[in-house]
Specification:
It holds the Pfam family Hydrolase_4. The chain is built from eleven helices and eight strands. By secondary structure, it is α/β, with parallel strands linked by helices. Strand 3 (about 25-30), helix 1 (about 40-45) and strand 4 (about 50-55) form a beta-alpha-beta unit.
Length: about 270
């Protein structure tokens, strides 16, 4: 499918694709993902009467990248995509779904006034809310590796030392067909760590989110991620929390889509 482009406030072109016809829900991917990662969920949502939009976050895929980076720029990117896909025939309604660190973008966008009616977050990684704040030394090491152009080492460091995957999982990632694509966007891992900060709950941002929110987690994710999701829901002014059957940090799109659709269209 041919990509369309929205222009963010700083002039950066943001590539997006749209699936289906109906009120739009913009899907925001997590770390090390491009828009293609959201297509399975987008297709499921399109089959349920929504118009699902996937996009490349800045610095990834077909989107541009303008320095210097700041979390506010990603909120502006989301707002630009929302503005490009909202339609009068849908009553101006638009929604957003954020996967992992993509949920941080959704929160920033909603807090800063993006025209969203409802939002869904899947396991926003505020691990500090569960007693595991982000280690600044590990973040600094990531930036050092990226700065030296050691992309493979940067991805491995992120997976092992920041995400906390076991050695066999990191080795599996290095041997996977997706490894070269992950290396291409290794520099955006610094964007994700900047979004997350120290991984504690951003109280001012959460308090500024006035729209209804659903925070989801998988029952097979780590207790830390589940607790972070629950704490996020409790801190938002108008939110509910649900745990769904799934695997680590994921729920099958065919099971996730009906839950997302039912909440967004309630």
């Amino acid at each position: 499918m041919t990509a369309h482009f929205a222009t963010s406030s700083d002039g950066t072109g943001i590539a997006f694709e749209r699936f289906g016809d109906g009120p739009p829900v913009v899907l925001v991917g997590g770390a090390l993902s491009v828009r293609g990662a959201g297509v399975p969920l987008a297709e499921e949502l399109a089959g349920l009467g929504l118009s699902a939009v996937v996009y490349d976050r800045r610095g990834r895929g077909d989107s541009g990248d303008t320095e210097p980076y700041a979390p506010a720029r990603e909120a502006e990117d989301l707002a630009a995509v929302v503005a490009a896909v909202r339609r009068e025939e849908d009553g101006g309604q638009a929604y957003a779904f954020g996967m992992s660190s993509g949920g941080l973008v959704v929160l920033e966008g909603a807090a800063r006034g993006a025209s969203l009616s409802r939002i869904v977050l899947f396991e926003p990684p505020f691990t500090g809310a569960a007693g595991q704040p982000q280690d600044p030394a590990r973040v600094a090491r990531l930036a050092e590796l990226v700065g030296r152009g050691e992309r493979g080492e940067a991805v491995s460091h992120f997976l092992a030392e920041i995400i906390g995957l076991p050695p066999q999982a990191v080795e599996g990632a290095r041997r996977s067909p997706a490894w070269e694509d992950m290396k291409k966007i290794a520099h955006t891992l610094c964007y994700d760590t900047a979004l997350l900060g120290d991984a504690t709950l951003p109280d001012e941002t959460l308090a500024a989110v006035r729209v209804p929110a659903l925070v989801l987690s998988s029952d097979e994710s780590t207790p830390v991620l589940q607790e972070a999701s629950r704490a996020t829901a409790e801190a938002l002014p108008h939110a509910e929390y649900r745990s769904l059957p799934g695997a680590f940090h994921q729920v099958p799109p065919e099971d996730l889509a009906p839950v997302v659709r039912d909440f967004l269209t309630a």
